[in-house]
Specification:
This protein has 345 residues and is α+β, with helices and mostly antiparallel strands. The chain has two domains: 5-90; 107-342, Bira Bifunctional Protein, Domain 2 (BirA Bifunctional Protein, domain 2). Helices cover 37% and strands 21% of the residues. A hairpin with a 2-residue loop joins strand 7 (249-256) and strand 8. The two termini are 77 Å apart. The protein binds zinc ion (ZN).
């Protein structure tokens, strides 16, 4: 077999003109220099040639291999520099894109927004308070006596931060949103109506219904004349907007140090309509919040003149409301950050 090296060289030069990307370059290399490529074929044929022809054919084959190697090297540099100049040139714009996942508000944030939205529509202003509070605001000003069990270190996270205003006392992670009442009243004169959402902390062991951190929403309305009937009317409107117009309510007498009189509020179970089911534990009622008329001592602690104002206050747990509304049975689900749970809402 004889080889026309001139013709091969021409073909190689011709093909080289069309090498514009790495894919073609690799095909070109395989065709000539690969294990089953043309050069291997030429070298393999040497043994069948007459002895006197072998040196010339061998030299021609070596020249051809060198030329092809130079072409490959040059082309590699060309393609690289072209890609560096315009990276998009090598991107196949017809391939479908990868959509970036779009997040959404956490279910608890949605509930907070919904509740605050209802009260904002009733004229309340949304305010926030700090999560690190003084013992005075969290307990003393709210008429919670020094020997009250909630002041125990087992029930409150105390911080190693001295309370500047009250010697010998420490600051703490607020155990409820009620201290925000004190802050609001210290800064504002009535009439006022505020709604305060926020995180609160208690050293509870985590289980299906307890978490060391959870959310509350506090409401406070103060004016010269506020009646308990207004508290009832306000909360009735709120519960109907949140749970539906058919919702019935009942107020059960209760005790809170910072309100007098105080009550706990139940709504008729929106699942069984009061007949009794597993959600309401056969009672037909669901406990959803605490409320009452602001205790005169709280007004004094906030710096208001004695007997001048009256007020109503209420507080509710965001997790509890959300669990009731959506039939969620374990509070830990809110905080485990499991996307399979969160994306359902
Ligand atoms: Zn029920």
């Amino acid at each position: 077999m004889s080889w026309n090296f001139q013709e091969i060289e021409d073909t190689v030069q011709q093909e080289a003109k069309y090498i514009l990307d790495f894919q073609r370059l690799e095909a070109f290399r395989t065709k000539y220099l690969g294990r089953k490529g043309l050069l291997q074929e030429i070298y393999a044929s040497l043994s069948n040639l007459p002895h006197d022809q072998r040196p010339l054919v061998g030299k021609n084959a070596n020249d051809l291999r060198n030329n092809i190697s130079i072409i490959i090297e040059t082309k590699q540099k060309e393609i690289k520099s072209r890609q560096a100049q315009s990276p998009a040139a090598d991107i196949d714009i017809t391939i479908p894109g990868v959509a970036a996942p779009v997040g959404h508000q956490h279910i608890l944030t949605q509930t907070i927004d919904e509740i605050c939205g209802i009260f904002a529509g009733l004229g309340f202003v949304v305010q926030e308070g700090p999560e690190i509070e003084t013992e005075f605001n969290n307990f003393t000003a709210l008429n919670i006596p020094v020997d009250h069990p909630s002041r125990d270190a087992f029930d409150t996270f105390y911080l190693e931060l001295p309370d500047p205003g009250h010697q010998g006392r420490y600051q703490l992670l607020r155990s409820h949103t009620s201290p925000a009442q004190i802050r609001v009243m210290q800064k504002n004169q009535p009439p006022l109506a505020v709604i305060v959402p926020g995180r609160v902390y208690r050293p509870d062991a985590a289980d299906a219904s307890h978490s060391f951190m959870f959310h509350q929403i506090e409401g406070l309305l103060v004016n010269e004349d506020v009646k308990f009937s207004e508290l009832k009317g306000l909360l009735t409107v709120f519960c109907r907007r949140l749970f539906g117009e058919k919702t019935k309510m009942r107020f059960r007498p209760h005790f809170f140090p910072f309100t007098e009189p105080s009550a706990e509020v139940d709504i008729s179970c929106y699942i069984c309509d009061g007949k009794g089911c597993s959600v309401c534990r056969r009672k037909g009622w669901l406990e959803i919040m605490g409320c009452g008329m602001v205790h005169p001592k709280v007004f004094l602690a906030a710096g208001y003149p004695e007997g001048k104002y009256k007020g109503l206050a209420f507080g509710l747990g965001v997790e509890r409301i959300t669990m009731l509304k959506y039939g969620i049975e374990d509070i830990r689900l809110f905080f485990e950050n499991d996307i399979r749970f969160l994306e359902q809402f």
